[in-house]
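User: Run a structure prediction on this.
Assistant: Running it now.
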Amino acid sequence: MRKAQAKKLPLAPDPRFSDKLVTRFVNNIMWEGKKSGAFTIFYAALEKVAKQTSEDGYEVWKKALANVAPAVEVRSRRIGGATFQIPSEVRPDRRISLSMKWLIRYSRERNGRSMADKLANEIVAASKGEGAAFKKKEDTHRMAEANKAFAHFRI
């Protein structure tokens, strides 16, 4: 028997945009509890995005998150000794979480001088429908499409 699910702690909105989504993103960037450093990186990246695209950096970031968010994913399920990749819809909360993690992960893997530069470049690419994070979403969708024959095994 599983224990009760842990309660989600309420997030404080960020100081500049008063958005809880920004705080959630910054929490994912953060390493070793250095939240102020993560905020510095994020805000610097948004300023660079605004300079590159001559649009509002915050809006470009939101568009990038929406572009990277997956609609379907595959989950492994063991049935009769064989493991099947079963496509399933992604919960809204997990969609946002995955898109944030992918953006941050692939911006870390980019080459550039600072994390702010790398994050800014990945955000701009994702908002245009390019970049490694967007490619990850496309691959996830392709995998789900390829395995839709096993969709009847869904729980």
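The chain has a mean pLDDT of 91.
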